[in-house]
Each structure stands twice: as C-alpha cells, then as structure tokens.
Write a structure and sequence with these properties.
Blueprint lengths: L1 E7 L3 H12 L1 H8 L2 E9 L3 E4 L6 H11 L12 H8 L3 E4 L11 H10 L3 E4 L2 H18 L3 E2 L10 H8 L5 E7 L2 H11 L4 H10 L8 H4 L2 H15 L9 E2 L7 H9 L2 E12 L2 E12 L11 E8 L4 E7 L3 H15 L1
Parallel strand pairs: 1-2, 1-4, 4-5, 5-6, 8-10
Antiparallel strand pairs: 2-3, 7-9, 7-11, 9-10, 11-12
This protein binds L-homoserine.
C-alpha cells in the first residue's frame, strides 16, 4: 500500500520533514515496508501544491531551498478541505504554527482529516492542549489514528515512553526543562550573550515559536505541562490554569549571582500529585550544579519522572529544532502505517 502524505505548514519543521522523507525513502521501504508519496503541501506563505499521484519531492525541495516558495509549481486554489480531498491523503502531518488558546488553524485541519478517516500526526501543540480528548474520540469514531510525539521534547520519545514504556507504573511527579528556546537563552546569557541576542539566535536556529513571547513568557512550557497532565495523569488542565512565570524578568546579574553561589537558573516545568490535587507549574528555579538538570544546556530538554515501580527515570534529549522535531513526524507515520 502507498501511504499518501499531506503536509499542512511548510516552515522549518515541515521542510525538514520533507527532507527526511526524501533522504530516507529507501530505508523506510527496506526496514519498515513504508512506501509513500507526498500528495499535498500547503503553506500560507509558500503556496499549495497537490498531486494525488505524488509531488516530485526532489523538485519541490529544490524550489524550497532556492526560492523558499512553491509558486513555481502549478497552484491549487481551493479551501483546505477541497485540497485535502483532492490529495487523496491517507496521512495528514499538521505543522502549522501553535495557538494555545484556540488550537487554530490546526484544530480545523485535524478535524477535517480525522472525520474523513485520514490518520493524523502533528507537532502543533495547540490542538492537543485545547482538545486532546475530543480529537481522540473523533479519531476512534472515524477509524483513524492520531499521534503527536513531537508536541513535547520534539523527537525525543517522551510520549511513547510514558504511554508504552511505563505502562503499569503510577506516576507521582514529572519535573524538567520542557522549552528549548528559554533553556538556550538562559545558557547563552550564562556565557555572556545578551537576552536580545540569544533570543534572535534561538529564532534563527528554528527553536522559537512563530511568536516567541509564547516561549519566554512560559506559555509553551505550560502547554506542554497541560498535555503531559492528560497523558501521564489522565487529567485535563487548561493552559491558563498552570501556575506560570516566564524568563523575561531573569537578569544577567541574577544569573551571575546564582552561578557564584553554585546554582544555575533554569525554567522548570512540573506536575506533582499533592493531597490537594495535581499541581502544575512553570517557573524559573535555581538548580544546584550537582543536580542533573543543571548541566542541561542549549535547546536540550530533560525530564525526570518519579514512579512507583521504577523510581526516578530521567530522559534527556533534543527539545526543539527543525530536524529533531521532524523526526517525531517520521516516527509517527511509521507507527501509524
Ligand atoms: N518553541 C519550542 C521550544 C519548540 O523552544 O521548546 C519545541 O516545542
């Protein structure tokens, strides 16, 4: 069977996904029996290309790399639903920018796909934070699969580990660094860069959200906390209910003072079972240099999960980045197929 992949959103992550698919076509077939064509790519800025028989991926990537646009291809000028139907897609990869308040436009794209029985993978955090339960139910009703490994810790397989690797464990606490941009900024500020320079570099490297205030004010990490609350504790926590402080008030002086006293300032996100219920937070904390989280630098994320049967398990790996996040889409499409 040929898997027909539709891609919604072709920024850093979408482009990297096309690159990975192109580079790994032979391996995907040989190792997993995964045969595919990309039949649709749509991006607000770059244009819309559809071909149910398969877009020429090499030519599309060449055009993206040289012109950052698909406008040289014949354009399809229909609504998202018309485009999706014309593409005959069996899988939608949804990587449009995150909106943690409404989940849109991704939420509508995903509903349109699931309701047509099309499997969905996404790295867009908004739809999961806003409507994980509703989407899961819709997927089940329509006989479609839904995966979103990349919404937390990019391609580092935290969600798969929580769902499958730790099946049967009771989780008591999750604590860690869940935002790559802020960890990168704090690391670079420790090395003498200014906040503004570090934020600019994080944006250039593809770590930051389209609107980076979501990162530095802690919204992105709060969205991830809300997602993990559902996966690890089966509890619905709204992003706005996560106790949240970002890094905008962390000064270079504060970082220097902490360093001199043997601490590193890190934006810590967590969930903890308390007698009053599940406590969810994001806040800058001073972490002693002897603690494993203190040495987690740059866009790397790390999370320690406290369980009954395994004690503490710490997972460290990329938390952001174009190829690192595209890897999550790849693992999802292989798993779904
Ligand atoms: N902006 C996010 C981060 C991207 O910096 O962690 C990955 O979710």
């Amino acid at each position: 069977m040929i898997n027909k992949i539709a891609l919604a959103g072709c920024g850093n992550v979408g482009t990297a996904f096309l690159e990975l698919l192109h580079k790994k076509r032979a391996l995907l077939d040989e190792k997993y029996g995964f045969k595919f064509e990309v039949t649709m790519v749509t991006d607000l800025m770059k244009g819309t290309v559809v071909d149910p028989n398969g877009i020429d991926l090499a030519a599309a990537l060449d055009m993206l790399h040289k012109k950052n646009s698909f406008k040289g291809f014949p354009q399809f000028d229909g609504s998202f639903v018309e485009t999706l139907e014309k593409s005959e897609a069996t899988i939608l990869a949804e990587v449009t920018p995150t909106d943690l308040k409404t989940g849109e436009p991704g939420l509508s794209h995903i509903k349109a796909a699931l309701s047509r029985g099309i499997n969905v993978t996404m790295t867009n955090k908004g739809p999961v934070a806003v409507a994980a339960d509703e989407l899961q139910k819709l997927a089940e009703e329509c006989g479609a699969k839904l995966r979103y490994e990349g919404v937390v810790m990019s391609g580092t397989p935290l969600i798969d580990m929580l769902r499958h690797g730790m099946a049967g464990c009771a989780i008591q606490k999750i604590e860690g660094i869940l935002n790559g941009t802020t960890n990168y900024i704090l690391s670079q500020m420790t090395n003498g860069m200014t906040y503004a320079e570090a934020l600019e570099k994080a944006t250039e490297l593809g770590y930051a959200e389209a609107d980076p205030s979501g990162d530095v004010e802690g919204w992105d990490a709060a969205g991830k906390v809300a997602i993990l609350a559902k996966i690890a504790f089966d509890k619905i926590i709204h992003v706005g209910d996560v106790k949240r402080t970002g890094i905008t008030d962390v000064t270079p002086e504060k970082i220097k003072e902490s360093l001199a006293a043997g601490y590193r300032v890190k934006l810590i996100a967590g969930l903890e079972v308390t007698p009053l219920g599940l406590y969810a937070y994001v806040q800058p904390k001073e972490i002693h240099i002897s603690h494993p989280l203190a040495s987690v630098e740059g866009a790397t994320n790390a999370v320690t999960i406290t369980t009954d049967n395994l004690g503490d398990v710490t997972l460290i790996g990329p938390g952001a980045g174009r190829t690192e996040t595209a890897q999550a889409l790849l693992t999802d499409v292989i798993a779904m197929a």
